Records
---
Amino acid sequence: MVKKLNFRPAWIILILIISSVILYSIGSSANTKSGRTETATTQKENTPPQKTRFSDHKNAGLNENCFKCHGQSKYSYENSESKKKATKKMYAELIIDRSVFYESNHREFKCTDCHSEDYNTFPHLGNLRMESKPNCLDCHGGDEKYAKFHFENIEKEFQESVHSEKHSDDFTCWMCHNPHTYKINARTNENIKQTIAYDNAICLNCHGNLSNYQLLTDKASPNLLKKHDWIPNQKLHFLSVRCVECHTRKINDSTLVAHKILPKKEAVRNCDQCHSSNSVLLAALYKYKIKEVRSAKGFFKGVIANDSYVIGANRNYYLNVLSLIIAGFVILGIIIHALIRTFKV
C-alpha cells in the first residue's frame, strides 16, 4: 500500500517563508524611505542658509531706490531747511517686503513700470497719490504671451460678480491680487493644502479684516464662523476647500479659478455638489493637478495616482499595501491548493 504524502507542514512552512519575505520587503522599503527623509533633513539643517541675491533680478538696482525707504519700517532724509538728517517711520501699508516681491509674478518689473516716473523725485508730489492704477488687461490683454491665462474671460466673469456689481470701479483686481506680492499658486504648487490656505487668505484679507472690509462699506464685518455654522465639521471644510468653490460659478471652462463671485444666497449649500463622483471640485480645485498627472502618466495612471481629497475617492497608502498583501495571499493560496490537489491525484 502506497502511503500518501502529507503536504500540510510544507504548505504552512512555505506560507510562513513567503509572509516573512513580504513583511521584510515592506519594512525595508519603509526604513529606506524614512532614512532618506532623515538624511535630507539632516543635510538641510547642516547646510548654511543661502543669502537671497535680489541683484540677480533685472531691475533690482533701480528698484532699490524705492526699497531703501519702502522696504523697511523707517526711512531717512536730509531736511532741506535745517540741513539735518531726519528719520521717520514708514506707514505699514506702504512697506513692501523685498523677499516677497522678488518671489511674486511681477518680480522682474521696475517700480516705475506701474508707478509714475515722478516718484523718482523726493519728496514725492502730493498729487501722485491720485494717479490711476493699471488693471490686469492694461498689460495682459490682447497679448499672445499671456493668452493661456485667458485674462479677457476672467475680466468678463469679474464684471458679472457681486464685487463688481456692488462696488463698480471701486473694486479692482488689486483688491484681491496685490501686485507687489501676488504669485500663481494653483498651477505651480503641488501641495493642495498650501494652495487652499493661500487662496483663502486672499478672501480673508477683507472678509476677516475689519479695516480692509470697511474701505468699501460701512457695514460691520460678518462673523464668518457664525455665517457658516450650518456646515458640519466646519474646521475640516475650511482647511480642505477654498471659499471660491462654494461662492463662485464658472461661466466657461478656460479659466482655472472662477471670478464670478455669487451673492451669498446663491452660494453652494448642497453637500452632493462636492461629495459625489461628479464633484464640482474636480473641475475647480483639483482640475490642474489631475490634468498635469494625466499628461505625465497617462489617463489611467492619472486617475489611480491622484491624491486629491474627495470623500469616497481618495486613497490611503497603507490600505493599498494591505489590499495587495491580502490579494497576494489569496492568489498564493489558490496556487498552492491547486498544486496539492494535483499531486494528490
---
Amino acid sequence: MIVSFVRTETKSCTPLFLESAVFGMGKLMHSGFALLLIALSLAFPSPALSQRKKTPPPPGRPPLLLRTTTRHELRRFPFGGTVTIVGAPAGSITVEGWSRSEVDISADIQLQADTEADLDLLATVNTIVFDEDMNHLRVLTTGTHDKAFMKAVAKKFPKTLLGLPWKIDYRVRVPLSTDLEINGGNGAITLTGVEGNIQISGAESVANINASSGTLSATIAVGKVNLNIPSRSWRGVGADVRLAAGEVTLELPVGFNGDIDAEILRLGEVVDSYGGLESREKPGITPQVMKVRAGSGGAFFRFTVGDGKIYIKKQTADSKP
C-alpha cells in the first residue's frame, strides 16, 4: 500500500547551486560509454548494471508516502541543433519530433519517503536542470544516485534517504530535424519522427524506435529494441544497434532497399520472416550471422546481440505510424 500525494507544477525554477554543479555534465556522453556498457553486460549477467541495490523494507514498516510533481518547460530551439537527455536511474523517456522550433519538456518526478519533510529534502536533489547554449540543449537529471554530485552539493545529506526509490518519466518534443543523445537507465525509451544523428543508450529498457533517416546508434544492456522503418529507403547513413542480452526486432516495408548485417555473438539465432533477402558476402546466411541485401541495397544496418534473438519481419498494419 502506498499513500499518494500528487502535485502539479509548471515552469519551476532550479536552484542555482544545482545548475553550477552539473554544468557541462551532458558532454560526458560519448561512444566509449556504449562500448563499455556492452563489455560489462557480456561479462556480468546481472540485468541491473547501473542500478543501486535496494534493501527491502523491514516487516511492519509503515507504507512510504509518494509524491508526484509534474514539471513543464518550453524552450525556443532552432532546427538542426542538438538535444541531450540524461535520464534518471529509473523512468521512461519519450521523444517525438514536431514542426515547431521549440523543445517542449514534461517530466513526472516521483519521490517516496517516510515523511513530508523527507520528501521536501529529496526534492532539492532529485530533480532536473538545464544546460544550454545557442544550438545545444542538455536536459540533465541530478539525484541521490550520483555520488560525485551528492558529495559536491549535499555532503550532509541524510544517508537514510539515499536508497529510497524514485523515478522521472520524460516526455519531450523536439524540432523534426534535431540531433539527439539519450542516456536512459531502467525504463522504456520511445522515439518517433526525428531526423538527425541519434545516439541512444540504456541499462535495462524496451526501446521502440520509428525512424527513416539520419544516423542511428543504439546500445542497450538488457531488454528489447524494436526498430520500425516506415519508408522503403533510408535517407542517411543507416543504423548500428547493439544489445547485450534480449531481442532486436527489425520491421521493414515491402520493397525495402538496404544492406543488413545481423549477428549473434554467443547464444541465440537470427530469424528471417521478411523473405527475399539475398546473401551479400560471406558467410552469407547462417543461424547466427546474416550479411544480406534487401532490394537494390542502400543504407547500411548492423545489429549485434550477445545472447538472444534478432527478428527481421515485414511491417504490419499495427506497426505503421
---
Amino acid sequence: MDDKPIQRDADPVSGVADSTASHIPAASRAARHDVKADNFPQPGRERMICPQPISTLGTGQPNMERPLLARMSPNHVFMMGDNPALPRMPQAPKLLDFFRLRFSEITYRHLLQSAKTALDAGQDEKIVIACLLHDISNGAFLRTEHGYWSAQIVAPYVTEEIAWAIQYHQALRYFADESVGFKYPDAYNHFFGPDYEPPEYIQQAHRDARAHRWYMTSRLITVYDLYSFNDTVNIDPEIFTDLIGRHFKQPKEGLGFDNSPVAHMWRTMIWPNNFL
C-alpha cells in the first residue's frame, strides 16, 4: 500500500494550509477556535442544532425538538447553512472534497484502502471505482441500508453496473463464496452475534444477485471490503483522480447543485445540521 503523507488542503476558513493536520479527513478533527462567527450565516446569534429524528429513535435519548423550540428568541435560532465546526465546502464540490471535508475517519480510510487493495490486485477499473464508492453513505449520511443509499447517491454519475454492484454488496457480505475465497466475516459475528440471521429481503437480494450477469462485480467489492481496515496506512486520495475522471461524471455545477434526482442527498452532507 502507498503510505506517503497526504497533502492536506488549505484551511477552509483562513485559506492557509495546516501543516500540523493529521492524515485524516478534516470532518473528524475538532473545530478550530479562531473561526470568526460573523463569517457564517445568522451572525450574532446562538445557532441551535436539532438532532435528526432518525438519530434518536429507539435510543432512549430525549427528543430535543420541543425544548429547543422553547428556547427560540431573537438571539436563539436554528442553524441553517455553514457550520463553523465543519470545514467549508467549495462552491462546486467534487467527490474528493466530500472524502476530505465530510467523511468520518473510518469510512475515509476504509474506502481508500479498499480501492487501493483492488487496484494493487490488478482489478478492472470498474471494480476499483466501485470499491472507492461502496460505503459512501457510511461516510456522512446513513449507515442503515448503506448499500442501497450508497448506490442511490452515486447512480447518476456512474454506470448502471457500478451502481447495481454497490447496492447488492450489502446483501452479499452475509453469504460466503468459496470460488473467490470469501468467507462470512468474523467481524459480523462480533457485530451481531454468531446466531444472527439476515432478514428475508437480504436473503432474496442474495439469491437475485447470484443469478445476475453482474454478480461478480458486486462480489469482488466484498472481497476487497473485508480486508481494508488498517488504521496505520495512509493513502493519498489524489491517486484516484484520473480514475474518478474516467468513471465518475462530476457535474460542473458541483455535487449537490446539478439538479439531479440525488442532489438533495449531497446537500444534506454539505449542511448536515440544517433545521429544514
